[in-house]
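Sanity check. The docking grid for iron/sulfur cluster depends on where the pocket ends up, so I'm generating a full predicted complex first rather than guessing from homology. Inputs follow.
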Amino acid sequence: MEREITGVMVYYHEVCRRKLWYFYHGIQMEQENENVRIGKVLDEESYKRDDKHINIDNVINIDFIRSSGVLHEVKKSRKIEEAGILQVKYYLYYLKKKGVTDIRARIDYPLLKQSLEIELTEEDEQKIEFVLEDIHKITESEVPQKVEKKSICKSCAYYDLCFI
Ligand code: SF4
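Predicted complex below; grid placement will be based on this.
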């Protein structure tokens, strides 16, 4: 059976195609990475009171604030903001395909005390469809994409695999 494309996979597609391939093929080193650890702590510590963590089909894994009907993603920094935005838009897209449209989304950056409202436009939907197709192509490949050095490589959990 074909595996569903998760929000994390959409995020990795935007951040690094090679990282997406590693992740999809079960090579996971994220637990050891300090940035991911900080992310997890943030996830657990922020907005404790009104959160309800929801998981739909193992594709959407996000907090939902019931009182305001908002899907709610917490990010540590705005460093790779576009990828985080597309991830949340993918959640809205996925829910729309399931008939759920009366829902809003927001990304919060608690360390920066900022937040961003996320909306899904028609253009976004087209982009997401292109990304989903590309994710299929990348993950079906027998080998990962070539290494392309980026500014985020130094803080990537797969750094040793790519550069040593
Ligand atoms: S180290 Fe760089 S090239 Fe390798 S997976 Fe991470 S982000 Fe991609």
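Relevant for the grid: Strands lie at 51-56, 60-65, 70-74, 104-109, 114-118.
Also worth noting: Residues 16, 18-19, 147-148, 150, 152-153, 156, 158-159, 162 surround iron/sulfur cluster (CB under 6 Å).
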